[in-house]
Amino acid sequence: MKRIPRRRMMLAGALLLAPTVFCQSATMAEANKLMQEKAYDKASVVLEKLTENEPENAPAWNQLGAAFYSMKRYDKAVEAYRKADALQFSQPAVRYNIACSLALAGKQNEALDWLDKAIASGFSQAGLLESDPDLKSLLESPRFKTIREGADRNAFPCKYDERHRALDFWVGAWDVFSPQGQKIGTNVIEKKVGDCLIYENWTSAFGGGQSMNYFDPSSGKWKQNWVSKNGSVVWYEGEVIDGAMHFEGENIAPNGRITPARVTLSPNPDGTLRHLIETSQDGGKTWAVSFDGKYVRQLPN
Prior knowledge:
Elements: H1 3-17, H2 26-36, H3 40-53, H4 58-70, H5 74-86, H6 91-104, H7 108-120, H8 126-131, H9 142-155, H10 157-160, E1 172-177, E2 183-192, E3 197-204, E4 207-216, E5 221-228, E6 233-241, E7 244-252, E8 258-267, E9 273-279, E10 288-297
Antiparallel strand pairs: 1-2, 1-10, 2-3, 3-4, 4-5, 5-6, 6-7, 7-8, 8-9, 9-10
């Protein structure tokens, strides 16, 4: 990894995320041009003068930190980056850069402290933590594993949130059988979108369909949106009670007819699963079974 392109990438993100917007002055433009030309010593002189005149200019402090970092003047880089951090300038990136500078200066414990701060402010690039040569000296620290997990949590919060994991028992590739033991279809349930979505792909001799299932934090309920090949759609809302998912909603036929429906997905002790669908023709007074499937996990090929 070349350090300068990586720093430029992070600086670009910093400029987009800065809470305070500065119009780029001629001085800042000159400093950026010098940085692009890798004339870091000249850029640092320009930026030091700029930050002296404009002590609240967070992007200038950030760029000054990058200049000192590129000159391997890591203590000065930390000083400048900390000014940018104090001005709340793109804190995940700035704090990460402080950690890198401290690690290169041989200050491992301080570097880990700043990585913790970067994680707390939302840093989410777990892969960069492991691959960045700047942080090589930190990899064997027991704290580093926790820091990496923190970055992964920031990147994929649903993976670590039990509310989004409540339907994990449905995930897998299944053969589905009728109560009489006849195979009636297959269903493949996958986690997608950073584990925030459970995607269903049902196939049978009579057609098939697909659904998206997800936890809605605003309502605290799970939602299912289903579309079948014949044009019917289903809207369900539900929650897990005593280990089983209970959905309620409406089946909407291709002709627009609406039928109340409810679904129960129940895991069994032997690893199978029951998928029960009931519908009502009298507004929910009585219910009749419209689908009763036993799910058996497919064996690996």
